[in-house]
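Replying to the earlier thread about multi-chain prediction with a worked example.

Input:
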Amino acid sequence: MDEEPHAVGSHRLRSLAEEFHNKEFRDTYVAAHTRRFLARQMRKFRGEMSQTEFAGLIDKQQTIVSRLENPNYSGWTLGTLLEIANKLNVGLFVRFVDFPTFLKYTAVQSETAMRPAAYDQQQVDDFARIESEQKLVEADILRALEIMQPNRNEAAKNAAQQAQTESMLHALFGLERSGAPTLTEKHQPQNWAPIPLQQERGIASLR
Amino acid sequence: MVALRCYDPASDGGGGGIHLWFNGLSPTYRAQIVATLELISAENSLDELDEVKPLRGACEGLTEIIVDFLIGEQEIHIRILGFRGPNRGELTLLTGFEKTNDNAIYGFYCPQAHHRKEGVLRDGRRAPRCWFP
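Result:
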């Protein structure tokens, strides 16, 4: 059972990739997914509130809330999205992407992705601290590998990039990491611990 | 997560049931259905979803999945009939059709769905775990 989400994920990728050969499917899926996901997010944000109560919260009319929850509504504007993000104290992430990126990001339909938490200072501070510490550790490992195995430099950089991407996706969407070990996991000895920031960092500790 | 099962009795990857119908649809229809079913599958509970409704009357015991969308100005209403089960957290899809202006079409599809449901309850292999697309 533990492997099922991965099985679903890989099946989804393969099947959608095949369907994406057809431009009509591709275009419709992008529109349908985006509209339906946004509509569902609006419904999740409202929770137990009535549409009128929620309208008061986001400073809109009830009829607007009703439209925003309709997956066929096509009148979204960036301005409205930003206003709602502002009122709900959540971020907004809108950009054009290539299709592999689209497939990767739309795979995440967890409860956390569906109903993101409002701004939390402690959460942001912890995220920034952990991410920067991890990046310093990765930089240390890369330097150590360059000295120990200079010809494996490129592979090490690729692995570090993979770790960075996974970390970003995890932070953004709560995406489970893939089964493959990250660079840090591959090369850390047992009983290994991140080097404190204030301590002078050196590659000797990794040998 | 809601696990989907599909009535595909002759299925070794599709055919004979819900996938036979699905595979015959246009890319636009298929994409809309996929986007809807993906979101339904991601839910922990089907109770609060506008797209999933229990049916009454002659269709009692069945659940309807609503896939409404626009093509230009034209409203399209796709319906997939199924039932919640046979196991907890599962939704079995039995038959699908495009709804027209009146509800008479349910007079054909609800008995068909009931018949298929009985078959699935007798032999779960008629509706294996499935994905869309």
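The two ends of chain B are 17 Å apart (CA to CA).

Feel free to reuse this layout for your own posts.
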